[in-house]
């Protein structure tokens, strides 16, 4: 039979196709591919539109780690359909994020956490022996290197990140706030916690980067815009996901062999924080090929395929044993060195806010944008956001 598979977009699309085709060859089936929008919000919109129409056009969907609670009633419950031994080899926290009301609605495909990329050649040139441990150190280092490099390269900047008003900004800003000790927007019990002085200070600190160590246009950047600047040799530091490592080491990269990765910095009195990301595979409840679709996602999320994706695309496995695999760590040294970053990543509050998470995330990103663009100060923004989130909460998440 022929399955239609949502293979995402961007740099991972071809790797996904290749994996699906390997499964098809082994099983005697065939596959067609759906290339979804690159923006995760638009991607979710397409899925929701399809599922609302009870469409069977796409059999397998790629799902962001924060979507299971939104889509639980329209995806196949995999509990009992996938052997427990297969499920249990994945990180427990990621399996938990894919489980809603006792239903396992998707299988972990790869995990993500925010990382700090930096130029090793420039660090050495300016006498820095280690990456910054705090945001204050990062700002000082970025300013010094930027000012000197701009004497010969006007386009050089100190730090690039994801400042566009979308889900990526939610991820970046959650890292700032958490690293300042300001909580996680909404706590595990569903209480709105964003209105605090540390969260406000984190937003004000980030706003100070705009048009100083980061270009004014950073408030329009997504992951690929940031990567493009860093990979072309025009930035000292970059916040991005692990996938950017393989791209940065490609033959056409101007920074090949000149980059390294570290945990993101900490705020005053806080500790480094990385937002948990990652993608998963679920089966459309309205698929006419559910058995084959489950076979496919078991294959795609298994150790052999995850190893290939780790080596060829720097996609972090969700299977813990692969972090000890010599082939994987040889190609991606940071995976072994920074394993704790991935296992201890901070989850967005999609669990406690369930079907209202998108509203929560958008309200948060809007508030952050108001601070980054100078329309509000941090304290006023978090106070207003707390009131907005309380209204969204209404009678409960």
Automatic annotation (TrEMBL):
<keyword id="KW-0732">Signal</keyword>
<dbReference type="Pfam" id="PF01547">
    <property type="entry name" value="SBP_bac_1"/>
</dbReference>
<dbReference type="InterPro" id="IPR006059">
    <property type="entry name" value="SBP"/>
</dbReference>
<comment type="similarity">
    <text>Belongs to the bacterial solute-binding protein 1 family.</text>
</comment>
<protein>
    <submittedName>
        <fullName>Putative ABC transporter-binding protein</fullName>
    </submittedName>
</protein>
<dbReference type="InterPro" id="IPR050490">
    <property type="entry name" value="Bact_solute-bd_prot1"/>
</dbReference>
<keyword id="KW-0813">Transport</keyword>
């Amino acid at each position: 039979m022929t399955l239609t598979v949502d293979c995402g977009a961007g740099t991972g699309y071809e790797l996904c196709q290749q994996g699906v085709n390997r499964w098809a060859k082994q099983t005697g089936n065939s596959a067609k591919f759906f290339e979804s929008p690159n923006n995760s919000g638009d991607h979710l919109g397409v899925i929701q539109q399809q599922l609302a129409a009870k469409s069977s056009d796409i059999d397998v969907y790629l799902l962001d780690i924060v979507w299971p609670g939104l889509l639980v009633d329209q995806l196949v419950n995999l509990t009992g359909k996938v052997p427990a031994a297969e499920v249990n080899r994945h990180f427990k926290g990621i399996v938990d994020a894919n489980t809603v009301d006792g239903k396992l609605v998707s299988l972990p495909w790869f995990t993500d956490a925010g990382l700090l990329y930096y130029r090793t050649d420039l660090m050495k040139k300016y006498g820095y022996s280690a990456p910054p441990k705090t945001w204050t150190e990062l700002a000082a280092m970025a300013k010094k290197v930027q000012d000197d490099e701009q004497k010969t390269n006007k386009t050089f900047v100190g730090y690039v990140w994801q400042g566009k008003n979308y889900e990526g900004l939610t991820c970046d800003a959650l890292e700032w706030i958490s690293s300042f000790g300001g909580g996680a927007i909404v706590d595990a019990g569903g209480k709105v916690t964003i209105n605090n002085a540390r969260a406000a200070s984190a937003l004000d600190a980030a706003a100070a980067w705009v048009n100083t160590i980061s270009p004014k246009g950073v408030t329009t950047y997504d992951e690929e815009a940031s990567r493009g600047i860093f990979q072309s040799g025009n930035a000292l530091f970059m916040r991005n996901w692990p996938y950017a490592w393989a791209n940065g080491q490609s033959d056409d990269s101007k920074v090949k062999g000149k980059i390294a990765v570290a945990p993101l910095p900490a705020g005053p009195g806080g500790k480094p924080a990385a937002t948990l990301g990652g993608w998963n595979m679920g089966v459309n409840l309205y698929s006419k090929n559910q058995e084959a679709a489950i076979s496919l996602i078991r294959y795609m999320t298994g150790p052999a395929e995850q190893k290939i994706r780790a080596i060829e695309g720097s996609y972090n496995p969700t299977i813990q044993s692969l972090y000890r695999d010599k082939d994987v760590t040889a190609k991606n040294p940071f995976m072994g060195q920074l394993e704790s970053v991935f296992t201890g990543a901070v989850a967005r509050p999609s669990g406690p806010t369930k079907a209202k998470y998108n509203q929560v995330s958008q309200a948060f990103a809007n508030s952050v944008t108001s601070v980054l663009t100078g329309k509000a100060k941090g304290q006023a923004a978090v106070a207003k956001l707390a009131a907005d989130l309380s209204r969204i909460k209404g009678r409960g998440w």
